[in-house]
Amino acid sequence: MELNERKLKILEAIISNYLDTAEPVGSRTISKNYDLGISPATIRNEMSDLEELGFIMQPHTSAGRIPSDKGYRLYVDMILSAKYDSPKHLSYVEALLSKAGRIETLLQDIVSVLAKETNLTAIVSTPQYSKCKIKNIQLIELESQKVLAVIVTDGNMANNYVLEINEDMDQPMLNKLSFILNNQLHGLDVEEINLPLIEKIKAFAGNQDEIIGKVLEVVFQAVHNNEDTQIYTSGAINMLRLPEFSDLEKATSIMETLDKKDYIRQLLLNDFDGESIVTDGVNIKIGSENNNENMKDCSLITTTYHIGGKPLGVIGLIGPKRMDYQSAIFSLKCLIKEIEKRMNDS
Amino acid sequence: MELNERKLKILEAIISNYLDTAEPVGSRTISKNYDLGISPATIRNEMSDLEELGFIMQPHTSAGRIPSDKGYRLYVDMILSAKYDSPKHLSYVEALLSKAGRIETLLQDIVSVLAKETNLTAIVSTPQYSKCKIKNIQLIELESQKVLAVIVTDGNMANNYVLEINEDMDQPMLNKLSFILNNQLHGLDVEEINLPLIEKIKAFAGNQDEIIGKVLEVVFQAVHNNEDTQIYTSGAINMLRLPEFSDLEKATSIMETLDKKDYIRQLLLNDFDGESIVTDGVNIKIGSENNNENMKDCSLITTTYHIGGKPLGVIGLIGPKRMDYQSAIFSLKCLIKEIEKRMNDS
DNA sequence: TGTTAGCACTCATTTGTGTGGAGTGCTAAC
DNA sequence: GTTAGCACTCCACACAAATGAGTGCTAACA
């Protein structure tokens, strides 16, 4: 038995109806609402086949059918392979984003807008720090024996570190040290700062090696301490309004999952290193494909954004499997465009 | 009729029991579990009086009693006026806080620890930027026609701003401008940067007035754009586990309220400007005292932290009215101590 | 051979009803 | 002033019956 055209049409009808109503779909509903020209009885026979093929399932004996993960997968693959509108520049989106040039603020605004647009949960990772190029390092006097190191990378991302040192330094002196640091490090990837390099530069710095060493070590630490990327999320509460989470137990469990930044980071960056990016850069994981019990009713849509041509961060949406994939993908692409426009406009 | 000693004891018993169980308390329960030496019938008579006085109420005719907001108020005032342990330095708390010197990271860590400690929702405002003293301003070259301004204030708070300017500047030139800015602004409160002052300094800067003006304007903007303080929260999900929010509707509504940063900011800073700080710096608002429908089942405990002797931020806990006020206050005080220690150790 | 009407069957959901129990208020006795 | 006793209230829970959406199967039909 195979998936002929009529079966596919029925499957589409079931999924489409289920996306709208969140209720199991019966044969009569399809016969009435979708103009397929066949009776409920015939549809029932086909549905029985579709179930045998694994595309739909029954919550219980006397209920209608709901799509299985395999069914969603087919549906989503069809969407992904279809040509659809390329992302537009949405001027009203731009208006919602603050003018601030800081990338952290920008990304926070982006997820917030994305969550509002889609009524889903939006997540984004900050650019992978270790893969960014160092643009400028500046040391700033704070107070006796305390110095602020500002490290600027690609996309004008600035990271601040407070350093404690053993001697007093005035700003002119710090400017000189900053100059040395810039000479040595400008244009390097952050991850190229490793222990041998640190030693080499310290030797070069002569009797100013303490502070130079501290700067580099603190950056080295940061990269290796999970601070490589931060995660921003927005709109987790949107999940609470969905019928799939109308049970308090489920609601709590999904909220807890979404609250675990480390887990979300892992989820988001999972396929990132391996670059297992599919169709048109958009990656979709449906239900059990996320390999997590608490995410089994959710789908995750992700895509990467690029800075200086390199994919440095991931942005995504988490929603019920029953979400509007089409428009979610569209919103995601529009926002990506906005991010990249702002981070590469130089 | 007035509140004699016996009535007070019964009231305490009711509240104490209700804090534990979240169930209305009946006369028999009190008679059995609290050694007051009186029968349920007598307690019933007293309870009837307490209800008339407004300290307790009945959810429905044949139920036990629960404390009213007025009852909680009495109870909380007793706690506040009692002498209790002064906050300790908790070494295990210190271990949980990251070593990073950045105040934003510190405050985020603080709310996270506080939420875990108390199982409540912790909130904190970053130091009121406008009231901070400027310590150092440094301009950093980003790329052609883009400059990063780093402004460091009290407590080593660093704020970054990306500026777009109309000419190219190299770092040595920016160092000179930074020097000028520092000369003019060091030691001023941020809010002292106003339009007349900006004009004055621009005049002083001669042909470099563009960039100097931009720096000051962007700071001026920030202070007047709600960026004066940020709000960090943690542990909102803790609310979902409480019996008072076992109804999904209530749960959703409290989560939505806690998600509204602007509302939380207002809640937190409400009494801040007026400095209506009570007993020992700890301020408690119970249920309806918060003047918000969604907060009517919650209490808010707040207190201020000081930098350089000035109260610049507020930290607080939101929990059910039924929370353990004693230990919440204690945890709050301990964490305040930790904040102030780190921000004033110079 | 594919399609369809008819029918018996299943099972979640809703509605109604009775019962148990916790707790009160009142009264009368101590 | 305190307490035992008792009638009364009302929620919570369990259980049964009714409802209805939907299925699978069978037999008839084109």
In short:
The structure is a homodimer of 346-residue chains. By secondary structure, chain A is α+β, with helices and mostly antiparallel strands.
Secondary structure layout:
Two copies of one chain form a homodimer.
Chain A: H1 5-21, H2 27-33, H3 40-53, E1 56-57, E2 66-67, H4 69-81, H5 91-96, H6 103-118, E3 121-125, E4 134-143, E5 146-153, E6 157-164, H7 171-185, H8 195-205, H9 209-224, E7 231-234, H10 248-259, H11 261-274, E8 283-286, E9 298-307, E10 310-320, H12 325-343
Helix pairs in contact in A: 1-3, 2-3, 6-12, 8-9
The first copy, chain A, binds a DNA duplex (30 and 30 nucleotides) through residues 24, 26-28, 38-42, 44-45, 47-48, 58-64.
What's the Cα radius of gyration of chain A? Answer: 26 Å
Number of domains of chain A: 3
| Oligomeric category | homodimer
Tell me the total number of β-strands of chain A: 10
Helix-strand category of chain A: alpha+beta
String of helices and strands of chain A: HHHEEHHHEEEEHHHEHHEEEH
CATH topology of the largest domain in chain A: Beta-Lactamase
Strand content of chain A: 15-25%
User: What is the largest interface, and how many residues per chain?
Assistant: A-B, 38 and 38 residues
Mean of residue pLDDT values of chain A? 89
- Helices of chain A, by number, come to 12
